[in-house]
Amino acid sequence: MPRDPRFAITTSARVMMSYMRSLRPKGRLLPARTTTFVVCAAICLSTLGSVAHAEDSPAPAEPAVPAPAPPVMPTALGSWCTSLFPMSVKKQRNRARALMVGKVNLDKGGTYSLTENPDWRPQSSADLSGNRHINSLRWALPLLFRGVNTQNQAMVDRFKQLMYDWIDDHQGKRSYWVNASIYGGLRTQTLACAWQTLQDPIIQQAAVRDATSMWKTYRGGTDVKIGANNTDLTRQLGALATFCSVGDVNLRNAAWNHLVAIARGVINSDGSDVEGSPHYAMYMEKLLSTVEAAAATCGIPNEPIPQLRGLLYGFVAQAVRPDFRLESLGDTAAVELRRTFGVGDWRADWLRSKGAIGTPPTPVYRAYDGGYIFGRHSWALSGSGAPDTYYSLRYKGIRPATAHTHDDGGSLTFYSRGVPWISDPGPYRYNSSSLRSFVKTRAAHSTFTVSNTKYNRGKGVVKTKSRSDSRSGGNDYSCLVDNSWKKSEITRCVTYVRGSDALVVADYINATKVKVRKKKRKNYKKREISQRWQIGPGIGVEGTEGQLTLVSGDQRVDVIKAGVGDWNLSSAVEGSSIGWHTTDWGVKAPGTVLSRSTTVPRKGDQQVMVTVFVPRGSAESVPVQISDGTVTITRNGNPVTVGFPAP
Prior knowledge:
Among the domains are: about 5-55, no CATH class; about 405-645, Beta-galactosidase, Chain A, domain 5 (Distorted Sandwich). Helices cover about 35% and strands about 25% of the residues. The protein contains 16 helices and 24 strands. The chain has helices at about 5-25, 30-55, 80-85, 90-100, 130-135, 140-150, 155-170, 175-180, 180-200, 200-215, 230-245, 250-265, 280-300, 305-320, 345-350, 435-440, and strands spanning about 105, 110-115, 365-370, 370-375, 390-395, 410-415, 420, 450, 460-470, 475-485, 490-495, 500-510, 525-535, 540-545, 545-550, 555-565, 570, 580-585, 585-590, 590-600, 605-615, 625, 630-635, 640-645. It has an eight-stranded antiparallel β-sheet, with no helix packed on it. Strands 3-4-5-6-7 form a five-stranded antiparallel β-sheet, with no helix packed on it. Helix 9 (about 180-200) runs parallel beside helix 11.
């Protein structure tokens, strides 16, 4: 009996569908491309079966199969979208339009060009961070937001296509930076937002996979996560949003406990950050605000996040210069506070409004566990007639350093009369350039280095003194000790003479342990100890060896020295990284390096370098006399004598 062709072909369709199920890993959907191929093959085979049946023998007419329903356009964004990614209408519109023609705006990271089916590879138009951020998928959200809010089906379809394409291309093992750091966390949040809005099972499955990965990266289970940084908050936020959305209470609670432990780990008990960068303290305030919003969206208590966020305001206030810009320490450019920073907090309001509203902080001198000392003459506004001098010192924090901390132990910055005279080089930008590498090193900061000896950064610079008599109008006293250099200890002590508005710095070199055995003397290379002062862009230098004067407009700072070493000046030039400063993200400007050096003989010895900074107007004269162990500063005819700053 001849075989019925209908049976062979329709059986083949069933086999294809069975094969598709066998390909699917347990608990996962197949990639969209594979699913589409197999389903199409099955449909074609079934259709052929119907054709074969029709050719074999007449068949009764079958009712017409209704066309598939068009995709349902959501009428509103999910609550996770609005709590995790607040976005203005203007930003939605502009970026969605750009995305529809294939242009991704990665903010500071540059731009990225999209093809119909992107390959997700790095492009020269984006920097290192930008090319990694392409895996965060956050940049695609304007399509979803604008599409839903204006009922634009094409934008929503393009958003879904991009999500599907990325998911298909990353089914297997992923490279480190795809899941790591902030990129994986933002992608998890993006997928949670997209799934909640679109109710798409493929996107939901991808969100759960990512959330599981983000959650599992947390190790410890302690109340305070030591060694965490800001990216860990981002990762756990994505996990919380996803597990809360799918109704997994146990994993939701675990993700929240992780968030709390990390928040306690990235903020010291005095409110200082662990990143060695005041900019990241400001950024963490934004993250903690998002954590609070996530708790509200999930319907769980937000304690202790508001209290931790409040601690940051006092710290950031001290890190703001009298020109209302953050001091450029670590990966911080000297920028003004974010417009939404600390709205409602009396200190943050005063700083953001430049003294128009709110109330200034009270302390004029503070030392922080994050490795900072900040001092200022007062909180008086410019034009009040009071000095506006401000300075900072850096040392090793009590918690592990992060990628945003520079090797700036012992570094000093000095601002006065509206000018950042001695400044920090800032971050430049996050790329693999020689300048980016250099600005993170000791030699790029206003501190000291030692050549021809072993260096152990892990020992770092530690604080040994931090005291202020400012409440009675007295001076500030700070001391830092650097044991990073083998058999060479350097102690930097600083006194701010408040009554004379002058800064006195004494660097003590103790190399008595250097003594070299006779048989090794031929191979001994003399150690050179170098002291550097990074002079900011646009500042001139004039004067003689004993006293130099920094010049900016009608303002001056006299730099008087005593002790070993002659002055040397080096200006920033193209082709070299020395002397460059960050004036804004990715923008460099030339400065000058003022330095002096001394050598340590084979037998070892002790030496001292004293440097005095005295701000004044161009028509003023403020004589300074340095004698044996004392400094006398005469301002407005009133001499004030202080001893060398000492441990």
